[in-house]
Design goal:
Layout: H1 14-32, H2 37-47, H3 67-81
């Protein structure tokens, strides 16, 4: 499928085109995994600054769980050990 073929002529530069491609890949991957792309990207961008490099894989669309789900599972784990 050729989506946006002529639109890419106006992306600005090679680097800008690569950045746009990465962002669109994340959006489409989120959709394929059943996530709302807006909620996914919002959560990822909020959690990203505090995350360590070794934990980045948990933000990929196929591994991602909303922050509320992560907090809920941590609460359940704490009450189970108490």
């Amino acid at each position: 499928m050729a989506v946006g073929r002529k639109n890419w002529l106006f992306v600005g530069s090679q680097l800008a085109g690569e950045r746009a491609a990465v962002l669109m890949s994340l959006i489409e991957s989120a959709k394929l995994n059943g996530h709302d792309p807006w909620a996914y990207l919002k959560d990822v961008f909020e959690r990203l600054p505090a995350l360590k490099n070794r934990d980045l894989a948990q933000l990929l669309p196929h591994n991602w769980r909303p922050a509320s789900a992560v907090a809920d599972s941590a609460t359940v784990a704490e009450t189970a050990t108490a």
